[in-house]
Design a protein that fits this description.
Length: 149
């Protein structure tokens, strides 16, 4: 069975998620199901814009698992270098990167806020992934507040 590297694109928010799988159709269905309750940046965007605004595209196939992993990482880095919004929590970059789903741990927002505050204190621009995590966290907080009304 071949390994597929895929991208999930949205023109609504100009974002992309890169992944790999042996079963593309099943994986797409799993992403759509997770969008209903998931807290990762991709799922937050799918909740905000609707899964119908996202498209799943297999971009490469490989016989070897390691080749597919290398291609996945390469595509993530390419999109980041192009300044695109990348929904992947693990980008392979050697920077502090909150990798747990937002909202699962009670202190996730606090840890994320500390990273943002430190970057701002040093006048350092936020990495794209940290910026995306902050936006996803703010959206999750707004949804929580709306449900509590």
């Amino acid at each position: 069975m071949k390994y597929s590297v895929y991208e999930i694109w949205s023109d609504a928010c100009d974002g992309v998620y890169v992944g790999r799988t042996k079963m593309p159709e099943t994986r797409w269905k799993a992403h759509c199901a997770m969008a209903k309750h998931g807290h990762a940046p991709l799922y937050a965007a799918m909740q905000e814009f609707g899964t119908e605004c996202f498209r799943f595209v297999v971009v490469e196939t490989f016989d070897a698992r390691l080749e597919s992993a290398a291609a996945e990482l390469s595509r993530i880095k390419m999109h980041l270098a192009n300044g695109q919004t990348v929904f992947n929590r693990n980008t392979g970059l050697p920077v502090p990167n909150p990798t747990k789903p937002i909202g699962v741990r009670p202190n996730q927002g606090t840890a994320l806020q500390r990273i943002i505050d430190r970057a701002r204190e040093g006048n350092t621009p936020l990495s794209p992934i940290v910026h995306q995590m902050a936006e996803a966290h703010e959206r999750a907080e707004r949804r929580k507040a709306k449900k509590g009304e």
